[in-house]
């Protein structure tokens, strides 16, 4: 990915990351109407569209901040594909019907297609990780929350009243436990195929 | 996977292994696929957790800002009113009024009367579970045009909770049907002075009340107060042209 040319629309990604209201507003003004129309034409309404769009922008934000997302295609196509994919998944979930994704407009090697796919997998993984994290025991949840919030393991150990070595070990084992939960979930296997 | 491996993952990620241990670790990554898969998930989870908790406050700020912009944007896209529960009968009223106007135009000699406009469609007040027997009584009575009974039920409901403008509006209509003009008028004019979504509806019904009382000038005055974006604007326009 790194040798590919970054598209000038990277400004939208950077704007989201900086929580720049002008950029966010511009995204709504320029790119959102198309998505709303699409969702309305495909058994949705404007409330549904609002949710899908909001979730999509949060996923993009998370990917940008965690994975340094770099846009190699126009934002328009990328954003539209992402929202569309999310909406079709939503429809599939609620209707149990087979929804065919018809991508006639875009060829298979399309840059936007690839990038949108990457982001949506990222988003689904995030949702899965969040869900699995909730399944951990309270002790693990507390320790991991403290570990990543406080950062210094010495302080974490002190705040939890345990030794540094114990806190260190516990951290690895808790993430280990989480790893196993993720590996065992059917959703993870779907994502990896 | 053994606990020992997770401890090893952590040490590797925090770069605490010696040169030799690192090469041993990396060769296991190459040769043991289970080890490799578990490590990749472990790494991804670490990065996920780090981002989740470290960036939490910045991310919350972003999400709040996004929500505000999104709400403003979508608010603008919507038609001016959001009275979802009302819709069926509003459309029905519009339809029946369109029909009536047809009839009235056909029968142009007659003056417009209140009875041209009191064709209410069925209302639906009960929405959730819980004790709603009184609401049901009000609803049924209104729908079967037993306005005296409906009025009693609405009065009782309002005595319990006078914050629901929807109930006030219906009570006004029942009063109007019962020819209790003073009460109806004062209720409608009170409602029309609130910022409620029923504000324009209240003006419309106040006008209809004047129509029923054959106070055509007052009726006209009121009809002219109905703004262009109101539900009943078109009906009001038509009625104005008939009265003038």
From TrEMBL, chain A:
Pfam entry (one): Sigma70_r2
Coiled-coil ranges per UniProt: none
Domain RNA polymerase sigma-70 region: 28-95
InterPro entries: RNA_pol_sigma-70_dom, RNA_pol_sigma70_r2, RNA_pol_sigma_r2
Protein name (record): Sigma-70 family RNA polymerase sigma factor
TrEMBL record, chain B:
Listed Gene3D superfamilies: Tetratricopeptide repeat domain
Highest taxon of the lineage: Bacteria
InterPro entries xref list: TPR-like_helical_dom_sf (IPR011990)
Name under which the protein is recorded: Tetratricopeptide repeat protein
